[in-house]
Amino acid sequence: MMFSFHRGALSFIMALSVAAGITSSAIAGRALLPDQRAMQTAKLSEPLDPNEIDGWVADDHAAALSAFVAHCEASKGRTLPTKAFGISNANLRAICAKARKTNAKDAKTFLEQHFTFHRVKDEGFVTGYYMPELEGSLVRTSEYSVPLHGYPKDLKVLPTRGEVMDGALDDMGLEVLWLKDPIDAFFTAIQGSARVRLPDGELLRLAFAGKSGHEYTPIGRVLIERGEIAKENMSMDALRSWLSNNPSQQNEVFHHNKSYIFFELQSPETAEPSAIGGAGTPLTDLRSLAIDDDLHTYGSLIFVSSELRTYDKSGERFARLMVAQDTGSAIKGAARGDIFVGSGAKAGTIAGNIRHQAVFYLLVPK
Length: 366
Hints:
Elements: H1 34-37, H2 61-74, H3 89-99, H4 107-114, E1 115-119, E2 124-131, E3 133-137, E4 146-149, H5 161-165, E5 175-179, H6 182-191, E6 194-197, E7 203-211, H7 219-226, H8 236-245, H9 250-255, E8 261-266, E9 288-290, E10 301-306, E11 318-326, E12 336-343, H10 345-352, E13 355-365
Helix pairs in contact: 2-3
């Protein structure tokens, strides 16, 4: 979130998110620890030998453990509640404390000694997202006229996107930033955060502050169903192009997505570091994962194995241990994830091409 809310770069154009499934479990036949007892109703496999998981042995385990420790350090003092899979933040922190004293060469052994590995039985799917850089203004001008709003703490019922666009938050002093283009404003909400460059060159970070709670509808799906863009041709570039070429229809299409995202501006001193996720911790390129935070506890470790081969020039498949640090309105389901690629235009191009089947393995503290 940042992203906070996250965001997914292309998750919003998918026709369907993977449905969350909490049914009977295959975890049985042994004395279960607290974290594992909570998962008896989850769709997880019995514990697996990690060395038989495709891609596990070849991963950079030291890099993954470093990202895990960095998350733990950054989340000190924050309350990160246990979610449906039952993995507690306290247990993760206990392991993290030991991880700080572990040598990089021992990272793989350490992870295998402190976690059991379970395949999530749901069909997996990953998309990608990134942190863009925008031009914005702190005051409304003829050039900068599209508002982004702060969280309305005094409202008991939050408005839908359409209601906001129709003026529901006008005259409440909630505008935190003004942009030039409504398309940029919409995509910024999908991403969940951005770097913002003001007219005088000052750089700020736009961070996720909350969401309205209304239903998320991918507008890409709406355009596919209308026959405006063929499903096989759908991409972020195709969606942006259609919106740019059909300005009279933008508002009507935007109204279909009732979910609305609120933001806050952070100081220049904190604008340069990595994007911030829904857990309130900095994201690590290609190690941070946006997940369904109704199911996964922030800080959980998830190994993602996918046929994705477009994220770098090596041509190798994507098989990485990732840290659950973010969420998104379109990220629903136990095996649905959004991979944080990084910041800037290059990262945006990579993120826009990630739409791949995947297998998720949840690491459960012993």
